Structure formats: C-alpha cells, structure tokens
Amino acid sequence: MRNVRHFWIYFIMFAGILFLFISNDFGLVDVQRTAIITGLALDKEEGELLLTADLAVPSTSEKGENTSPVQVSAKAKTVAQALEKIGEKVGWAPKLVYCRVLLLGEELMKEDCFHYLDYFLRNEYFSDNCILLAAQGQAKDLLSVKTPVDNIVTLALLKIISGEAYSSGRCVSVVLKDFAIGYYGNTKSGFLPIVKAEEPVKKVLNTQSGANQGGGGEEKQEEQVFSVSTTALFFEGKKQGELNEEETFALSLLRTRLRNSAYQIETEKGDYCIDLKQNKGKVRFFIQDGVPRLQVNLTARASISDRTQVSSVKELTSSPIVPSEVKRAVEKKLENAYESLFEKCRKTNCDVYGVLDKLRRYENEYFDAYQKDVLRLTKPTFTVKVISSAR
User: Fold this and answer.
1) What is the CATH number of the domain that holds 363?
2) pTM for the complete prediction?
3) Which of 132, 241, 257, 321 has the smallest CB count inside 10 Å?
4) Of 215, 243, 271, which one is at a domain's C-terminal end?
5) What is the chain's alpha carbon radius of gyration, rounded to the nearest angstrom?
6) What is the number of domains present in the chain?
7) Is residue 8 very low, low, confident or very high in pLDDT (cuts 50, 70, 90)?
8) Distances (CA, A) of 189 to 40, 122, 248
9) CB–CB of 278/301 below 8 Å?
C-alpha cells in the first residue's frame, strides 16, 4: 500500500514538472513581432520628453537575415506614454529587457532627471545594471552616428565603456542602480561619463556594380568614434559641473583596479609614459578637535612604458625601475588632481568622496550639526605613493 502511495506522489510530481516544462516559452521572443530596444535617448524639447529608441529590427538581405538599427522618436509627458507611441509607430510591442544603455541629453539634465528615470526603476523588465551616459548636446543625435566600432550605436557604446577605456581608467562606468543609490541616499549626488562624438572620419569604400550597371565606383561614408574621457557631476538629479580628463582618471584610480594605463608626465629629462597598475585607494573620514577631516591615500605600482628621449641599453633593460624624480612628478600631479576634484565637489555640492555617508556612519553624533556644510568645513589631505614595479 505504501509503495502505491509513493508511486502516485512521484507520478503527480513528474506530471507537474512536465507541465511546467512544456508550458514555458523559455524567454523566446518572436523577432518578427517585437521591437527589441537596445538603447534609449532621453531629451527635453519644448517642455516635453523626447524619447528616442534604438531598435534592432530584423531585415532580409541577399546574404540572409540580419539586424539593422532603426531610430524612432516620440514626444510625451512621461516615459510610459512615449514608449506606447513608439509601439504604435513601429507596430510592434517594445521590449525593454534587452535595453543596456540610457543616454541623457543636456537640456534634460538641467532639471531633476529622476522625473523620468524613476520609470525604469519601477519597470520589472528593465535591468538595474543598464549603463547611464550623459550626452554632449542632444542624446538622440548620438544614436544616428555611424561608427566603425559596431553596426548598432548602443552596442558600440557598451564596448567603449566596458572595454579598454574603462580598464585603463580613462572613463567611469555607472549603472542605473548605483546612480539611484546616490540620488536617494544621504549625499543626493552622482556622476556619469560624458559621451561625445569626435570629428567624422571619411571612409572610402570600393563598390562593385551589378551586371546591369556596367561599371564600378567609390562610395564615401563619414564615420565617427566616441570619447568618454570626461565626467558630469550631479546633485539632486541635476547636472552641476564637469570633471576634466585628469580628474576623471584620478577618480577612476579610487574606484577601479586598473589592468593597463598610459599616464603622461612631463619632467626636466623629457616626457614619460608611465604604466600604472595594482592601484589601491582608501578614503578615510574623521573628526578631530571638532574639525571634519578627509584623508585620501592611493598607492600604485608603476613602470616606464615609453619616453620621448632615446633610452640607453641599461634603461631599456630596467624599464620597471622608475626614476625618483619621475615618481614624485606623478605623485604631485595626481595629488593636484584630487585637490581640484574636491574643490569642484565643494562648488557643485556633489559628494563624490562620500563624505556625508561617512559622517553618518562613523561620526553619527556630529551628523545633525555638520550635514548641511560638511563639504565646506572638511579639511582634506591627499597622499599618493608610487612604487616601481621592479622585477
């Protein structure tokens, strides 16, 4: 009797699992009836939101079926209404599950951008790890740029942000989740990489004409690459200022473990290109004698990658050994960059160093007294130590 009961229990369990298996679509998408959004551009135009979607639309060519990018725009008061209008224009249901890039236009960043970004936090199909970028000018213009990096602009931007530029410290990478944590946290601050298109490069393509054309020809096409070496500072969702390339690199050293970098330094013995890696940054906040103090310490290993002067055989064989005057020049340059970065934080009220969070966590008894003017009252010290990567 017991064996029969066990048989029916296992049979019901097997039938339930089989039902779940055959009734699931496994996330499959009918590409013929779906507008797959790979990126979105948010602009402000005539008092309304201008939403531009970068769609990956299946198309048929002589070589078979491939994907071609299409940009569709819609104006509305909210993001939800704009997406609905885009769906009406393309005749497909827009899918946000594959969206990996959000571009914010300059006009939109003049006001609290979370008036529109909060929609993506509510949407359960939208990824919190979507990359946020601040555009120079209108964001929609970047989606129509032809770039040699990838056929789809948003995929090209993903390669730049998560590729060589990020691992070398030349740009910062911020996702929606981290940007929202800063906005809703104590600091109400954040930062985003600024993306801009460089001057167009003319590309000459040799084209073969068909049988009815009877000849060949050349087609000129302008392509552009992107730059993400500067950073936008935000307070209460509004853009307040920018960091230059040196300040962006200094900020990256505190946030990212570099795999490779090329840091230029000028000395009396010529210009050097220093490879910085194995960097370790530490930010410490405390109150001493009633004065808030911030200590920023950075250590990094360095080796000589290149220089403008001709090197001797001895110098070539001992490239990991960086001369003391070069190390001191690198340390001084980075310390100046951190000081400049902190002054911009004071002017814009953008707490990049997380001073207010550290005040509440480690010196909570002073929080009510200092929370409004903590950046102005804080006395910072910056110490950079460069060590030769000797073999």
Assistant:
1) 3.30.300.210
2) 0.81
3) 257
4) 243
5) 27
6) 2
7) confident
8) 23, 21, 16
9) yes
